[in-house]
Design goal:
Radius of gyration: 21 Å
Largest sheet: none
Strand content: under 5%
Number of strands: 0
Order of helices and strands: HHHH
Helix content: over 70%
Length: 89
């Protein structure tokens, strides 16, 4: 079966054809990109947390700004958890 026939067959049944350069079926439905942004933001915050925590372990002193580390950790955890819960159900 040629790719053109496969595309026509899947769209006739209401499905989404997987074509190179057009993403996948979940992005075509619009539900995946929002969860991906939440997870991406959560991963960036997690990376920041790990970098700052590593610097603290090496003896770098941030003074009272160390409280920011706890806020970053909580926000990263919440975003990752929400992203995981939304993508699973």
């Amino acid at each position: 079966m040629s790719p053109h026939n496969l595309k026509n067959a899947s769209t006739e049944r209401g499905g989404y054809a997987l074509k190179r350069g057009y993403g996948n079926a979940s992005t075509a439905q619009g539900g995946y990109s929002k969860n991906r942004n939440m997870k991406k933001t959560g991963m960036i915050l997690l990376a920041l947390y790990l970098i700052i925590d590593g610097l603290l372990g090496l003896g770098v002193n941030f003074g009272p700004l160390v409280m920011l580390l706890y806020v970053i950790a909580i926000v990263a955890g919440v975003l990752l958890l929400l992203g995981a819960l939304k993508s699973s159900g």
